[in-house]
Amino acid sequence: CDLALLAVADDGFWQGLGPPIRFSSDRLPAPGAAVTVLGFGQGGDNLCTTKGVVSRIDVQPYPWARGRGYQFIQLPVIQIDAAINPGNSGGPALTGDPLQPVGSGPTGGAAAADEAAGGGRDEEEVGPEALGVAFMGLQEAQSIGFIIPAKVALHFLEDFRLHGAFTHFGHPPFQWQCLETQDMRSYFRAEGQGGVRVSAVDPNVASGLQADDVVVELFGERVGHDG
Description:
six-stranded antiparallel β-barrel; alpha+beta; 4 helices
């Protein structure tokens, strides 16, 4: 899921760094919510701050997973219009417009590691809240950046806490195509019931599905035409 968990051997590393960043919650933010991104993006050596809003909530395959054969895994992403450049990866995307963003301390990955490991800082201190972790921008587009949502990062941390390693995310054993037009719904006989077309099936899983099936329900939850 394009995240890494880091730890330091000496608790003295945390001295004088102030309260750690906390993930806001496991709920996705609303479009239009303000966001401030911290990191060390290209163009200089000191901390860079960019601001914007949440532009879109989507579900996409992460490039890291897709490049390693996990093309059936799609996870939530938060699209923002704050600049994300090479060097921003791993930095926190903070809620709102914090009056005192973290100065030269660790960014999202290090703060997450401290939270996971129970490392050497005062539990009563409350730091800024993060919507997620910056991880990707589109170089050929303008004002399109993506952050890994807090709920994905929290799942990653909990997985590590329970198993001592990342065991991946559960995923449906198929790829799908949204049935967003009336003509598509008519062709696949999906009028009035929602559902998505199965475009490819994982050959390693005995799912009973085949291409051109229409999935209308998963685990008791209805599936919309938009997936």
